[in-house]
Amino acid sequence: MQSKARRRGPRESGAAPVSGMAAAAAVLLLSLVMLDRHAPVLDVLKFTAFAVLGVGLPGLVLWRLIGAYRRNLVEDCAAAFAIGTSVQLVVYLAGASVGLQRWTWVWAPVVLLVAVLDRDVRERVWRRVEAPLRPVTAWLLAAASGVVLFAVLRTGPDRYAPPYTTPDPSYPDMAFHQALAASAKTDVPIVPLWVAGEPMKYHTFFHQLAAATSWGTGIDLTHLVYGLAWLPLMLACCALVFVLTQRFLVRPGREPHPAATWAGPLAVLVAGLGGALQPLHDQALGGVSMATAAYLSPSQNLGLMLGLLLVVVCVDLLRDQPPRTRWILAILLALAASGAKATVLPLVVCGFGLVFFVRLVAGRPARIAVVGGVVMMLVFVGSVIAIFGGESSGLQIKPGAVFIQLPPYADLRDGAGVDRAAQLLSAAATLTAWGLAVVGVLFLRRFWRDPATAFLAGLSIGAFVATVLTTQPGISQMYFYRTAVPFLVVLSCLGLAQLIERLEDRRAAVLVAVASAAGLIACLLAREAASGQAGVKLPFLWTIGALLAVALVVAVGWRSIRRTGRAPTAFFAAAVAACMVGATALPLAGLVSDQASLVVYGRTGMYGPTKAQADAARWLRVNSGRDDLVATNAHCIVQRGTVCDSRHFWIAALSERQVLVEGWAYTNRANRIAVTTGVNPSVLPFWDQRLLAANDAAFTAPSDRVIERLRQYGVRWLYADRRAGEISPALKQYVRLRHATADATVYEIR
């Protein structure tokens, strides 16, 4: 009697997709709750609708249509948002050049209409994913992303929003970004609204994106910049770190790597909060994690998202995976990244350069590396000419200067001038902290056969070299290394995955979990033990000793319980996991400890306006013409004697009007003067003292001649800030009083 053939393998079940969708729903719900904390409900709904319908869905159509991708929903959603953002930027730049800024959202419904009506497009786009995530992976990713988002929320919006209500807390760079976004709504090219007559050669694509979103939704720029824009960008960054890690562990046509379940979520957590061990109790050794700059540097947030997806696409191209139309996606992302953050494309070029060198030495074809490197270099050179106009933003070649600018040099320094011994000790401490946090890169082994590994390594090496060899105002050269940290973390996680695979036990993930938790606790305890200790040697010895003890105990425990794998392999695996997760100890402690938060995220300053001052600037926006010019007596967020910190941007940001002279920091001219004089560009004297004197005379010694001088400059409005200095009572005799609050008065020149 012949029996029926029995079906082999696991049964089809809807449980896995449902569980994965539940994890996604949890993250989305958390995101909406976070947005609702610092923006009106209606604005949250409009922003969410625009992000999904105006950016994400049309981006998904292009992602699947051009790239033929449909691996999993995490990848699809993050990539769709990045692609949609790139197209929105290109369309906005084109539309703004012909005065159609308010209509640049129209591209999205056109793409969606084609995706619905065209049968061929519909069949290629609206299909199921090929490899949905396992429930455990989905929930681990949701948890890791949630922790990172919560950390950014607590140290960003919860500190600085709602803005413009009290002077403290305030961060002047946020008003700077808002002022540039206000200019992007109408000006082509963007100009610094806080000082008239100056160009703005800068990576301004975030500001164009914010302007496009404001036109498309009607949301005020204050709510966009301070409360809304950060979250989808950061969420996409988390997802794309996971996607990049999975590119190495889950390959088409192959069995998934044993570490595929947990390595991606671990990379998200460590890239989001780690990147550097923090043994010192009262100082942070350079904030390099994604969370460090996700809120206070929106251009870095946008640039990193675009850079991550660009690297993912380049990895597929280097592996020569079809279709070749993916080159279109790479070029689109490169164009968008070129003006989002200046650090992205040079590092991608370095990545292709190392792949070319490795392939050349190995005698293998390097055509794709050459083509990719040339394309990225052409886009970069084009951006240097068209976007930056040859401006360097104060970047100079000064080897080792970063170790003077970063802690703990200031505490180690002895005497005047540069203390070379302190600089070397600071360098040793910083490099040790950075290196131990990604020590897994030493164990990549077989992953080196993949050109994608050399690509990430080249990118990371380029970032490290650029950080160490250059200097820039505000330690902005650190953005090279911050951009590379997610890629270093991915490589470190791959090294850990390689060690775990050599243990030959499917339960080896338990070793990673135990070592990670123990490493986190060990770093917290070692940091507390370092309280009150001077110097860096003892704190580092405490931390390194604690991590080695954790690795030894975990390895011995593993060998005594499981008896698989070699003891050195278990030791190194435990050490890598403990170091990587231990690097997140200080940022995590900062969520519950004011002292730790102060160390890792810094002190907030009293640099903002009162509510009355802000209301007066908003009144000016409503009641003045778009091309009207404003004069103000407010120039310094802090003034000590004759030294003025001129990072004063909030009048321009809130009024959305050109100011004759408000502040003058963060301009190309200030950066050029700083390079030649060596003076901090934020405290430089204004370069046109005659103009500044004529401006200020209107508020302190008004007369018909003084007001006529301002009229000749084109000034229509005067914003008199009482907190910035005394205002002459005679002013109202020469100009018309239009609006008055407790702290500011607005006049119109008759």
From TrEMBL:
Protein origin, superkingdom: Bacteria
Transmembrane segments: 12-35, 47-66, 78-98, 133-153, 224-250, 262-281, 301-318, 346-362, 369-389, 421-444, 451-472, 478-497, 509-527, 539-558, 570-592
Protein name: Uncharacterized protein
Keywords (A to Z) from UniProt: Membrane, Transmembrane, Transmembrane helix
